[in-house]
């Protein structure tokens, strides 16, 4: 990869990051569990400048609600422009408990992929939102003589 490609990385303004987040709906929640980092997939919705997801009791929820910051990463690909993008939100997670807020949250279009009891609603309040957009490299750019030899049919 040449340095020419690195110059095509575009830092995204915060409003563009939020537009991408509104359309995504699936990301990865990074948390600290005991003595190591861990990552969990989440389905989320954007709600008043925050991300909301549902969870069951367990490791993900306990780690998210610990007194340690969390991060959420969401990535996407725009086939029409052959560009990828990545948005990272860093902040704190809090359990939604106030009756009015919980009632409002029940109306959000939040549909976890995995079935089961997910009765806890969590809000990730951002401290920092960053993003970037970049051209996706042609796979041929990464091929080496060794990788080409592996791809050759056996004779």
Task: Describe it.
- With 155 residues, the chain is α+β, with helices and mostly antiparallel strands.
- 23% of the residues lie in helices and 43% in strands.
- It has one domain: Pnp Oxidase, Chain A, CATH 2.30.110.10.
- The protein contains five helices and seven strands; from the N terminus they run αβαβββαββαβα.
- A six-stranded antiparallel barrel has the order 2-3-4-7-6-5.
- The mean pLDDT is 86.
- This is Pyridoxamine 5'-phosphate oxidase.
- Pfam families: Pyridox_ox_2.
- It comes from Kocuria turfanensis.
Which features does this protein show?
23% helix; six-stranded antiparallel barrel; 43% strand; alpha+beta; single chain; Pyridoxamine 5'-phosphate oxidase; Pnp Oxidase, Chain A; 155 residues
Shape: globular
**Strand-residue fraction?**
35-45%
Biggest beta sheet attributes: 6 strands, antiparallel, barrel
Query: Which radius of gyration do the C-alpha atoms yield?
Result: 19 Å
Structural class: alpha+beta
**N-to-C SSE series?**
HEHEEEHEEHEH
- CATH C-level class: Mainly Beta
| Poorly predicted regions | none
Count of extended strands: 7
CATH superfamily: Electron Transport, Fmn-binding Protein, Chain A
CATH fold assignment: Pnp Oxidase, Chain A
């Amino acid at each position: 990869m040449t340095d020419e490609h690195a110059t095509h990385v575009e830092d995204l303004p915060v409003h563009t990051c939020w537009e991408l987040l509104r359309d995504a709906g699936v990301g990865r929640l990074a948390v600290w569990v005991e003595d190591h980092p861990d990552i969990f997939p989440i389905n989320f919705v954007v709600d008043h400048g925050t991300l909301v997801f549902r969870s069951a009791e367990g490791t993900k929820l306990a780690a998210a609600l610990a007194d340690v910051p969390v991060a959420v990463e969401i990535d996407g690909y725009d086939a029409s422009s052959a560009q990828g993008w990545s948005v990272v939100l860093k902040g704190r997670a809090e359990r939604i408990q106030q009756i009015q807020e919980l009632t409002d949250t029940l109306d959000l279009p939040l549909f976890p992929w995995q079935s089961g009891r997910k009765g806890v609603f969590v809000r990730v309040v951002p401290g920092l939102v960053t993003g970037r957009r970049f051209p996706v490299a042609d796979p041929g750019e990464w091929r080496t003589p060794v990788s080409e030899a592996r791809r050759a049919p056996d004779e």
